[in-house]
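S1.2 Input.
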Amino acid sequence: MSNSNFLWEIILREIKNEVTPQVFETWFSRASIDNVDFVKKRVVITSKELLVSQYIQGTYDAKLKEILKINTGLDLHIEYDSLDNHIPIQDSTSSFNNKIPAENIIKQNFLQGDKPSGAQHFYQKQTFTFDDYKQPIPNKNITNSKKNPTLNKNYTFENFVVGEGNAFTHNIAWNVAVEPGGIYNPLFIYGGVGLGKTHLLHAIGNEMENNFPDFKIECISSEKFLNEFLASIKPMKNKNVGADEDFRRKYRDVDALLIDDIQFLSGKTETQNAFFHTFNELQMNQKQIVLISDRSPSQLNELEDRLVTRFSQGITADITPPDFETRMAILKYKCEQFDIQLSEETLTYISNNISSNIRELEGVLKRIKFTATSKNQPPSLAIAEEILKDTRISPRKNILPENILNVCADFYRIKMDDLLSSSRKKEVVKVRNIAIYLCRELTTLSFPAIGDYFNKDHTSIIYSVNKIAKLSKDEEPELFEDIELIKERIGKI
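S1.3 Output.
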């Protein structure tokens, strides 16, 4: 095995335990170590696409260096390169002399006891920002020659608040809008309810329309696609003989097809078949496809494998719940939009109490304005507290993560050390996810702060929270009963 492959397998093994399966598949499956020079202490990581290299560098550079340090005993400098356009992010043109086998270096250092001891936590706050990328400048002076009535003109890139949880996806969406049918085709965006997925979908369409006025764009829900398909095949009196052909032509004769809530096609075999052929036709003609879902392609269990495979052929990007800073930015933007003035204290209170859903943030602001107007009072913290007290359990600052962990460990008779370890035993993972979920719900800790406590990066914490949050009480009644009992015990501490 070559030095490069040997080291990359080590990195993949370690990284797989630190990130979600989707993150692993989206980023690390698209990269590899191209060169390694132990004499000059340099490693080159190369990916197929520039954007992948940029993301890995911006988000995981420190973590990768730490992994290499642990396994080689050397402080290796990492350079990043990409195959598309052969544009290096850093200078990687120097010649490499791989004179020292990786296996020997590693074995030697292990025998000498140079490997750092103790559990290592590799979390590094994401430094990736939208501004890190060169943004194409669209021609805003073009007058649209063709309107696309399915697009909501209120959803644009200009009024989309960018934060840590959506910066990458925002950038991808922008690139799709200015260069449709390129390397990011299809684009599959997924995330929880109320995080801005639909906003981005329409923003893509609106930006496309600005840049390509003659484009024919269809932006629809999967429900509409389903209903139109059923209407085209349903025998009806006086039905247009060519209805089925009209349906095919409508969705295949487009420059861009943007579909929201694609997960609703699950279990609908005939509609999936129709969409499969539509998808193939558009992709063959290099037409842009953008799909929105509440879960990743691998989680669409009732969707045919042939569709899931095609959804994963382009790029998959997720939107995670906004962090505190992003929530504050959203609130301030919405306050301007709704013409409401709130103090910094009030905004902070709202942001601390609503952490997962942008729509809820908007709803609270509207209710505050309505209540203040009806009472003939200025908007205030007191009004915000009144509105939120009945609809949301306020985070309690006196509850510590160790309290939650202790109760969870005792409740399920699992050792604390196991919950804080990297163990992947099913029973341990389940309790760990519950503990992480409760830390997010019952404390004011951010995702990174919870990650610090559990020795996980923030993406793993988000994954664990969503794992519990997305479960249905009807599907897992016993689990939710357990959670309520745990909450009661925590409340007595």
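S1.4 Remarks. The first helix runs from residue 3 to 16.
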